[in-house]
Design brief:
Length: 117
């Protein structure tokens, strides 16, 4: 089992920056993929960015060039640096670990990000 705790959300003006953190407890395996998803009000949860243990990243088109996913392996923490924020980035952001060999998926409780215009 993996427990995930997000932090770093808040209210920011358009053009500003925030850094989200996700601390994982439990074992992280070499095949796991860590990532961030977001769910705007009244909409579905969508991919923001993923990062493999090997360092391969993947970003959703709306955030490319503005968001950066990174990881501190020693602390089992994954980060999402969000720059040039836009009102449409407003959402609850969720941390995720996908255990590739089993398909099991673990989620954090989410952290609210609100971008004002």
């Amino acid at each position: 089992q993996v427990q995930l705790v997000e932090s770093g959300g808040g209210l920011v003006q358009a053009g500003g920056s925030l850094r989200l953190s996700c601390a994982a407890s439990g074992k992280i395996f070499s095949g796991d993929v860590m990532g961030w998803y977001r769910q705007p009000p009244g909409k579905q949860r969508d991919l923001v960015a993923t990062l493999t243990v090997g360092g391969t990243t993947n970003y959703a088109d709306p955030v490319k060039g503005r968001f950066t996913i990174s990881r501190d392996n020693g602390k089992k923490t994954v980060y999402l640096q969000m720059n040039s924020l836009k009102p449409e980035d407003t959402a609850v952001y969720y941390c995720n670990v996908l255990r590739s060999y089993s398909g099991l998926s673990f989620w954090g409780q989410g952290t609210q990000v609100t971008v004002s215009s």
